[in-house]
Amino acid sequence: MPEEPARDSSSSPVSPADSLSNSDGEADRPPKRCGRKRRSSRKNGEDSDSSTLGKRGKKSSNSSNSPQSFEELQTQRVMANVRERQRTQSLNDAFAALRKIIPTLPSDKLSKIQTLKLAAR
């Protein structure tokens, strides 16, 4: 008789299905907290995941080769800052162009979110 309860617990499809649905529900929740970008990139396909992992792999390989000089690290940081400033400037220019297209009062300078909401209409 002790074998039968063991078989019942292992053969009952309700428990694994419930645990799978719970784990799926839990897996769906963290991407919602992290934001839409991560969630959509995961749903877009494995290609985007593999490219992201490849970038991460490069970073980890660089950290494993950590005998980089301070000057190299400083140069990389400066270049990253330059790229970020260019990206931000490009984004601001795009918003300025979008604000010109959207009809508003001249005294109104729309925020970025307001600009996007009006442009989506």
TrEMBL record:
Low complexity: bias regions: 9-23
Residues annotated as domain BHLH: 75-121
GO biological process per UniProt: cell differentiation; muscle organ development; rhythmic process
Polar residues bias spans: 67-78
Annotated PROSITE patterns: BHLH (PS50888)
Xref: InterPro entries: bHLH_dom, E-box_TF_Regulators, HLH_DNA-bd_sf
Compositional bias per record (Basic residues), positions renumbered to this chain: 32-42
Residue segments, region Disordered: 1-78
Keyword Chaperone found: no
GO molecular function, one term: RNA polymerase II transcription regulatory region sequence-specific DNA binding
Keyword annotations: Activator, Biological rhythms, Developmental protein, Differentiation, DNA-binding, Myogenesis, Nucleus, Repressor, Transcription, Transcription regulation
Function according to Swiss-Prot or TrEMBL: Acts as a transcriptional regulator. Inhibits myogenesis by sequestrating E proteins, inhibiting trans-activation by MEF2, and inhibiting DNA-binding by MYOD1 through physical interaction. This interaction probably involves the basic domains of both proteins. Also represses expression of pro-inflammatory cytokines such as TNFA and IL1B. Regulates cranial suture patterning and fusion. Activates transcription as a heterodimer with E proteins. Regulates gene expression differentially, depending on dimer composition.
Protein name: Twist-related protein 1
Organism in which the protein naturally occurs: Cyprinus carpio (Common carp)
